Amino acid sequence: MEIILIQDVENLGNKDEIVNVKPGYGRNYLIPQGFAKLATASAKKVHAENLKQKSHKEAKLVADAEEMVAKLQALKLKISVKTSSKGKIFGSVNTVMIAEAIENQGIIVDRKYITIKGVDVIKEIGNYSANIKLHKNIKANIDFEVVATED
Questions:
Q1: Identical fold between 2-59 and 67-148
Q2: Per-residue exposure over 119-140, b if at least 16 CB sit within 10 Å of its own CB, e if not
Q3: Which CATH number fits domain 67-148: 3.40.50.2000, 3.30.365.10, 3.10.430.100, 3.40.50.10860?
Q4: High-pLDDT (> 70) share of the chain, %
């Protein structure tokens, strides 16, 4: 019996694969649980068209992400913070502040996808770098400087 997997099934296959299973397993478990659907001729045609459309969308997302990488790596970020006379920061610099600094440059990035290299939060003035995950396999590395505000 041929079925189209709707989601990943351990020891069987991944989402959108067409696999052969025993009729009882497919009819009594996979299809009722919503893990798969029967692979009829019309379902296979619809499945092929969906995969084709998904690949076009994926190609556009990858192209947009690569364009965003070029923009992000061209940025010169400076994050101004209040400091003590010894250079210690009052508070810390975190991913929210980095996302805001990038947004001030005209590029919107979700803070959840930003990770600071080497540390969780920044407590001192200096030069640092961060990774920004833009797509499954595409990451941008940006360098930024934490400076004291001039009051």
A1: no
A2: eeebeebeebebebbbbeeeeb
A3: 3.10.430.100
A4: 99
Closest CA to 35 of 51, 45, 49, 21: 21
Residue type, 58: E
Give residue-wise pLDDT tens across range 4-53.
999 989 999 888 899 999 999 999 999 999 999 999 999 999 999 999 99
Find residue 13's DSSP bridge partners: 9
Diameter of the chain by CA atoms? Answer: 75
Q: Under CATH, which number does the domain 2-59 receive?
A: 3.40.5.10
Length of the chain (residues):
151
Give buried/exposed letters for 85-94 (b at 16+ CB in 10 A, else e).
eeeebeeebe
Domain definitions of the chain by residue range: 2-59, 67-148
Q: How many CB atoms lie within 10 A of CB 141?
A: 12
Radius of gyration of the chain (CA): 24
Interatomic CA distance for residues 145 and 6, integer angstroms: 46
